C-alpha cells in the first residue's frame, strides 16, 4: 500500500479543485487518505506521478474523482432497518396517492433495488417512483445494468430473509452467463441519475429519503450543508433515514424531526 501524508493529501485536494472545480475539502480526511492510498497502489504510481497524470485534466482527473467517491453497498444491508421501514413507515405512507423515494448515494443500485422489492411486496410499487442518485457515473452505469455476481447474490439473499422478505430473492432476478440480472419489472420505477450531494441543489420533493452510510465521509460543516439539502427536499411528515453510525445530532435541523427509531436512525419531518 502506498502511504501518503496529510500535508500531501491537502496539496492533492487543492490541485483537484483547481483543475476540475470538484472540492474534496469537506470530506473526512482519514477516509480520503485511505482511498487515495488504495488508488495509488491499484494504479502503481506515486503521488508525484499522480499530480502529473491529473494535469491532463478531463478524463484523468474525472477518473480519480470517480474512484475516490465510490462506496460499497449490498442489498438489504442492515436487515433490521428494512423490517422497520416495512412495519413502521410503509403503514403511514400507504395512504398517499403517489410516492416519491430518494436513495441518495445509491452506489451500484443495491439499496434502490432493495427498496423496490420492499415496495412491491407491500403493494406500493405501482404508485411509487424511486430516484437513485450518485456522484459516480461509473457506479450508475453498473446500477442501470443491474448485474451482480452469484457470490454477492448469496449474501443479498441471506439479508433478504433476515429482512422478513415474503418470498425468495430469486423471484427478482434471472441468471445469465454466471451472473444474476435484476428483473426488468423491478427496475421500471427506478430512475438512476447523477447528483452531487455536496454541490447540487433540490430537484424534487420526496416523502422518503434514504441517505445511509454517506455522511460518515463528510466533515461536520459539509454534513450540515447536506442535511439542509435533504430537509428542503423532504415533504412535511416525510421520512429521513440515515446509516447506523450516523445521526441528526449537530445537523442544525434536528429540532424539525421526530425520532421514529433512534438505533436505526429513522426520522420524520414535523416542521
UniProtKB/TrEMBL annotation:
Ranges where the CheR-type methyltransferase domain occurs: 1-248
SUPFAM superfamilies: S-adenosyl-L-methionine-dependent methyltransferases
Domain of life of the source: Bacteria
Cited InterPro entries: Bact_Chemotaxis_MeTrfase, CheR_C, CheR_MeTrfase, SAM-dependent_MTases_sf
Coiled coil: none
Any matching Pfam family: CheR
Any one GO molecular-function label of the UniProt entry: S-adenosylmethionine-dependent methyltransferase activity
PANTHER family for the chain: CHEMOTAXIS PROTEIN, CHEMOTAXIS PROTEIN METHYLTRANSFERASE
Name this polypeptide is given: Chemotaxis protein CheR
Species, as recorded: Dyadobacter sediminis
Lineage, uppermost ranks: Bacteria, Pseudomonadati, Bacteroidota, Cytophagia, Cytophagales
